[in-house]
Amino acid sequence: MEKAIVTSKMTKKLRRTKSDVVFDTVTYLILGFALIIVAYPLYFVIISSISTPAAVARGDVLFFPIGFTLDGYKAVIEHSEVMRSFSNSLMYTFVGTIINIFVTLPAAYALSRHDLRKRTIFVVFFMIPMYFSGGLIPTFLVVRNLGMIDTIWSITVPGALSVYNMLVAMAFFRANLSLELLEASKLDGCTNTGFFMRIALPLSAPIIAILVLWYGVGHWNSYMSALIYLSSRVKWPLQLVLRTILILDANTLAHLRDPVEVMRLRNLSELMKYSLIIISSAPVLLVYPFIQKHFVKGVMIGSIKG
Fold first, then answer.
1. Domains and CATH numbers, the chain
2. What pTM was computed for the model?
3. Model pLDDT, residue 100
4. N or C: which end of the chain has fewer CB within 10 A?
């Protein structure tokens, strides 16, 4: 009881100095300014997508929506290709991320083992493609000769391994899987495969979450591979369809002569642009909060101890 009273008195005596107040104030101001810079563009897109196009064109929409309309979202949803391409992107992202994880984790774990002979040579071998690439035409010829043109595999297989992600995962394994843990598991009769499946993977939730986020966002935002390898329009991902919609809308307006129709389509096109941004960004924005803690923890561990 006496110790608690003494501690309470000491805590009251420890008051914040003026320098502490100034430091905290400056820190909060800087962080608040950074938050505004990052969050306002997204907020502007949201309020613009539900405001009247004329108000957006005049620059009246700054902090609050003016008018209210869902015509942009309605036009996007009713578009014949958007929903189909949305499901295509979900499939490409899911399958591609699974392939990435199955390729990256075993490679990173193997290279993190100190008992791997000639480990440095393998690491250098993997790092060479980070700086030197065969180029677009040789890659296209390889994909074509493998019979993957116009298939899901042309989107998911060529980028199955990111060397940078593999190096991050390798640093994580080296920092968190001690040699003593491996030796103890071998004394219990655990094989290398068993150690990887039963011990290494369950302890690697942070780095798995990071890889899923990085690979998933990469697949979701990618359209170049689809533009090169997919010839069937029904297999296009969302990003490629969105790009095509915006280009075709501009070309369509150029051939119209009725000024009233041109104005109507131009306003609808502006609404669709903002609505398309929201729809294409929504999956990433919804998934990120659930893996944020793993993301921060995994990046810090891999960067500090790697």
1. 15-69 (no CATH), 73-304 (1.10.3720.10)
2. 0.74
3. 92
4. N
